[in-house]
Amino acid sequence: MSFFVPGKNVSQFSSKNGLDIVLRYPKWEDLQPLWLYMNTLSREDTFLALSGESLDIQSQAEWLAGRFVQMEMRNSVVLLAMQGEDVIGVCNIDRNFNNRSRGLHVANFGISLASAYRSQGIGHFFARQSILEAKQKLNDITRIQLTLFSQNQIAYKLYQKLGFKICGQNPEALLYRGNFQDEILMSLKI
Prior knowledge:
The protein is an alpha+beta fold. It has helices at about 30-45, 55-70, 120-135, 155-160; strands at about 10-15, 20-25, 75-85, 85-95, 105-115, 145-150, 165-175, 180-190. The protein has one domain (about 10-190): 3-Layer(aba) Sandwich (Aminopeptidase). An eight-stranded mixed sheet has the order 1-2-3-4-5-6-8-7, sandwiched between helices. The radius of gyration is 16 Å and the shape is globular.
């Protein structure tokens, strides 16, 4: 039986600045605002894989459809942070299929937050709630892993607060604004 209900609210809270934030599952009607959000992040050229490229709505629709399927199969949790009707953040925790059946107990973590909503406690609450949701919904997940740019100290401190530990480093694996950076691998036992 599926846990995924499109648009279902998971949590609601107020940011440090008093903004009402809702965490919920995506629905098809989120396609346009999600596409706009992702393109805004890409233009920002922050510590994400997206770096200035423009995403077309077709590829965003394919991504969203794929996430719906994976949530139905209990292989993924995707939550949106919403402020009113605006998508202000996305967090996904996806079962790792890289090592076939030998790695299905591991999930990959990704999170992003619009620049205007950072440093307000939203990222911490959003990440923590997403991890709790994954623990409840994804069968047999025992570990969550993530990678980050070595110079992204704000994210590093957040992940430490959540209990993630460094478990590896890939030297000069990421290009960020013309400079190579180490890629840090962190892991959380759940």
